[in-house]
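Entry 14. Structure prediction run on the chain below.
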Amino acid sequence: MDGADHDRARKRCTGRNTQMSTTEQQWKRIQDKLRLLLKQHSTVRKENRKLKEELDAAHKKMQEQQQAADELKQQISILKLNTGEMKEADKRELEKRLTAYLKEIDRCIAMLGE
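Output returned:
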C-alpha cells in the first residue's frame, strides 16, 4: 500500500467514524426528545386528572345547589298556599307537582313490594 492508498483508507475510516458519530448524536437527540415528551405526557395526564376531579366536584356542588333551590321554591309555594296568596295557576302547578310526587312514591312502593 502506497501513501495515497493509505490516505484513502484513513479517509474512509474517518468518514465511517464521522457517520457513526452523527448517527449516535441523532439517536441521542431522539432519545432526549422522547424522554421530554414522556415527561410532558405524564404532566398533562396529571393535570387532566386534577381537572376532571375539579369538574366532578363542581357538578356535585351545582346539583346540590339546584336541589336546595328547588326545595326553597317548594317552601315558598307552601307558604303562599298557607297564607292564601297563591294564584289559581300556582295552585294548579302545585297540585300537579304533588300528584307527580305521589305517583313516584306509589311507584317506589310497588318496586319494594316486588
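The chain has a mean pLDDT of 84.
Filed with the rest of this week's runs.
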